[in-house]
Design a protein that fits this description.
9 helices
């Protein structure tokens, strides 16, 4: 058995994925690490290029795009590692990433999921993630600790429990999935890692952050800043997350807030930005939650 399985998902980003593979090859020792790449319904087959860049690569091709959760779940099924390290293909890692994360899990059995410090690749002095605050489940809002701060080493020695991991880089034990379960495929995109954190918490595990290692993230390369797919799934999944993880009373209070305040505010913002094409997808995201159960695998969106 390998000690660590690194799992990543590619969707029509061969150049970005090649950079990722080169980064992993540079900063890991092959004897203790296996790398699994799930090609998630990409329109072109670049397997030969990937395998040339990383000959030891375990390559999995999915005929359809299964989303972030579904693609990673395919990788989990193939993984032989004691530890599973989930990395976005638009990340580049550092030399002590694997050793720091596995070491943290070795010494702290209460940890279920752990994420490192995330910096923006194109602005490496700027922090993207250094942990997160607790969720306000009435508004489904929380805050990312350190976001947009200049990195002066203020989180380098931080090692502590946090509310949520970041999906771009997180590690867990494979054995813990027997009690926590896999990511939920029906999220497809956005909120799936938050929901997974909730599943780990319900299984009696904790979520942690460490600043002792870091990852560089090329944010917003897979999905544009403003797009119909992002608008739809952000709207749909915010409500789905609350439906899945809170009481019926909390879900009712959240729905009143979301429909009466948050969504109208979003519609107004799109109108002012002259992006009226996105307003339709706000309503479609809301509608899905009133026409589907919280366990439905019907995405309501043609991928």
């Amino acid at each position: 058995m390998k000690r660590t399985s690194i799992i990543t998902v590619n969707f029509n980003q061969p150049e970005v994925t090649l950079d990722f593979l080169q980064s992993v090859k540079l900063h890991t020792h092959l004897a203790g690490v296996e790398v699994i790449l799930v090609d998630n319904g990409s329109s072109e087959d670049h397997s030969a290029v990937f395998l040339k860049a990383y000959p030891e690569l375990i390559y999995i091709s999915s005929a359809e795009n299964l989303g972030f959760a579904g693609g990673n779940n395919l990788g989990i099924a193939r993984a032989t590692g004691e530890y599973l390290l989930f990395l976005n293909n638009d990340t580049e890692i550092t030399g002590n990433l694997v050793s720091e994360l596995t070491g943290a899990l070795d010494k702290n059995p209460e940890i279920g999921l752990i994420s490192p410090l995330l910096l923006y690749f194109d602005a490496p002095e700027v922090i993207q993630y250094a942990g997160s605050t607790k969720m306000n489940y009435i508004t489904c809002r929380n805050r990312t600790i350190g976001a947009l701060e200049t990195n002066r080493g203020q989180y380098d020695k931080v090692f502590e429990e946090t509310a949520f991991c970041h999906g771009a880089a997180m590690m867990c034990r494979k054995a813990d999935l027997e009690i926590a379960g896999l990511m939920e495929n029906n999220f497809f995109l956005y909120y799936e890692e938050l929901d997974w954190c909730e599943k780990f918490k319900k299984a009696g595990k904790k979520i942690w952050f460490t600043g002792r290692t870091l990852v560089y993230h090329k944010e917003s390369m897979s999905v544009g800043k403003e797009s119909k797919i992002k608008t739809y799934f952000m709207t749909r999944n915010r409500m789905l997350f609350i439906r899945r993880n809170t009481s019926w009373l909390n879900a009712l209070l959240f729905s009143l807030y979301y429909i009466g305040i948050a969504s109208p505010k979003q519609v107004l913002m799109y109108s002012r930005k002259n992006r009226k094409d996105l307003i339709h997808w706000v309503f479609m995201g809301l509608k899905w939650n009133f026409t589907h159960s919280k366990d439905s695998n019907d995405l309501g969106f043609k991928i």
